[in-house]
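FORM 7B: Structural annotation worksheet

SECTION A. Query
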Amino acid sequence: MLSEIDDPEEKAQAQLTVAQLAEKPTAKTLRETLKKYIDKGLDQYIYETHLEGNLPKFLYFDEFYQMEGQVNFETLKKRLSDKQLLDSDRPMLGLIELARINLDQLVVAQNTLELVSRIEGAGNYLSRRILDYWSQNRHIQLRFDLRPGRAGDPPGFQNGTNLWANVYDSAHWVTVRVGTRSRGFTWFFSFLAWFSQQQKSGKPIILLLDEPGIFLHASAQGDLLRFMEKELKGQHQVIYTTHSPFMIDPRHFERVRIVATAAWKKKDHYLRIKKEPKYSLTRFKPIQAVYSRFKEHWRTT
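SECTION B. Predicted structure
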């Protein structure tokens, strides 16, 4: 111990030696960095430090993720905490998060007016988005009713706090519940509510859609293609399945891939995806329909 050395010169020399043996800042930094490698493993460290933040997020949306148009917040909160969400809950949660509302706030009665204002703000945003891409009806507006349950409400909605989402059609002066509109509109609205919230993460997304045009009119399928091209191209990637010729962009046949099953050892089957598959011509019927339709259009214009 230095304190046990009485001779001043000897003590000074000992202090100098200790200083020389002390860990340099660069050595300390290297040791701490190597510890991260050792504790996590080099592969895990590289993934978490350099790759994880840049990896795209895979999201799946199908026909079952459709908003019903009403929700009881106490019941929704319980399903969320129990991790037993219904498919219809996901777009509703997207709407709630889009309005920057915490579920706990929704059960506080004195906040009702402020919460309605926030919900309506999110609804106005989605109304504008719908009008941008829903060419079938330009006279619709989303309206919300946030209130405590009443005795005459449906079962499950007679207690607690409920949100009712409605669509007002100014052309016909009629209001209907979101879930009672056409399945195509309900799907489109639910998708916009859900995806608008997902985009807020700022991360690149690979969006997986299962038969997205199945409930949409031909013109609405064109609207959906227009949405994908304008809103998603350059930021996110979309992969979707379809049997509809209206979900094939005739300007981009190079994006199309045929998916089919092929026999393997005469018993099993596997999926084969090819750009130029050698299968029955029946598999090309959607593409043939698109080509024929637009060839006639090009000929007459």
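SECTION C. Observations
The chain is about 45% helix and 20% strand. Residues 125 and 157 are 27 Å apart (CA to CA).

SECTION D. Sign-off
Analyst initials: ____
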